[in-house]
Design goal:
Elements: H1 8-17, E1 28-38, E2 62-64, E3 70-74, H2 81-96, E4 103-104, H3 128-144, E5 154-159, H4 164-171, H5 178-196, H6 198-204, E6 209-211, E7 226-229, E8 232-234, H7 251-254, H8 263-275, H9 279-284, E9 287-288, E10 291-292, E11 310-313, H10 322-329, E12 333-339, H11 351-366, H12 374-390, E13 397-400, E14 403-406, H13 407-425, H14 433-446, H15 452-463, H16 467-483, H17 489-511, H18 517-526
Antiparallel strand pairs: 1-3, 1-4, 1-5, 2-3, 5-12, 6-8, 7-8, 9-10, 11-12, 13-14
Helix pairs in contact: 5-11, 6-12, 8-10, 11-13, 11-14, 13-14
Amino acid sequence: MTHFTNTLSARLGQLQANGSETLLCGGFKGIEKESLRISRDGVIAHTPHPYALGSALTHPHITTDYSEALIELITPPFADIRDTLGYLQHIHQFVYAHLGQEILLGASMPCGISGDESIPIAEYGSSNVGKMKHIYRHGLWHRYGRTMQAIAGIHFNYSVPEALWPVLHSQENSPLSLADFIAVSYFGLIRNFQRVGWLILYLFGASPAICKSFFKSRPELMAQFEQFDAHTLYHPYATSLRMSDIGYKSKNQANLDIDYNSLSGYVESLSRAINTPYPEYEKIGTVMDDEYRQLNTHILQIENEFYSTMRPKQIAQSCEKPTVALRRRGVRYVEMRSLDLDVFDPMGIEEDTARFSEALLLTCLLTDSPLMTSQDHRTNNANQLLVAHSGRKPGLELARNGGGIGLQEWADEILDAMRPVCGVLDAGHPQQPYTAALNTQQAKVDNPDLTASARLLAAMRGRSQAFAGFAIAKSAEHAQYINGQPLDEANTQAFIDMAAQSHARQQFIESQPQLPFAEFLHRYFTQTCNETA
């Protein structure tokens, strides 16, 4: 597959010459935010997902991730990030009205857990699709443990403006169909993000410290850390331990060679992993004493088990596998998965962060993106791990093009490249919010003490607090802030109606005749199933 040869400045120049540069604006942005429900004293909640919030199986905006206590809030996509963040605030306001004495943990790394058994696996009812979601999570427990599944993050979803595609297609004189051009372009964006995505960890990583309780089920991992205090472990220059190798520490995933050079290569390599047996998982077994322990014994049970910093996404239809959806209808948007929760913001993400992320993804789209080798993958992963563990270390060097380059120098290059993109996105905004967001991040590159990870450690020292104490105190502040701004009547009623509709939808699904579960799984994995997913 050929890749584009024009430079970023040439592409922007052509768009501006055509009067088409404003087509860069208005890409749709959505946010998915995970948060652990905890008691006021900081212990993970063992209560069910609150009924008043709706069905976790069918609600479009309020669901659960791995654990019954790990709530996930999902906004619709909006062209204006202020609308996205406004909707996220509305969800928070509605959720808090039904949490009772519980609060949402504002940090990515979990507190208040005591080993795997303390983390309840999410429940989705009696239907086959509900059982599948629950059993998949059981499989994750047996493969990786539950503790690391309680880690929370922000997913930033972005779709390139639809009107931009035909213009870029024409501008490149591409021989490809428009649909193929879009797929090639999205995968170019993804490859570029894999090259420079370490910058997100440096700027926004907010998990440099971990509660010792996190290691109760895997105490052997503690040796690599320094002791912050009697209850907290850390790396002095860490940015995002959430995105480090302490989480999904699995040999099989480390050796997966997923192909990001084309849509077909991606689908084929991911499908291969889903269909290839793995000896260690065969030892676990699929069904024991008439109970499922995992969906299958393959390297990956399903696509979602592959943990990457960015995923190409297409909206799946009823009972459609994500890879099948991509193969049939191409890439609809990308999901950037490397943002930690911002413990200093009640919503978990600032507007500046979202604007910077959008500008970075557009820069990745418009910049040349050579195809990647297996060595490139290893280099990119090594850079990410290095920044996760020690991104603020003075003089830190990353690997690039077979040599080394200072993190600060490379970061300066990336931000310089983004500046004209931010200028275009600022069109019609007197306050120039994208350029302002860029300048805020430039200050963090110039002074690592301004990064979220450094601020978090400084605040813990200043308050003489362990990580758990600091995170719980900040979470209580967020709860007070949100509870102090109750949702208006119209939006409250809209969420009440959505909750009722979601429960009715789950009841309808469960009322339908159900195939034997083994047959349901067979049809799902061979995509002949016609049950609602």
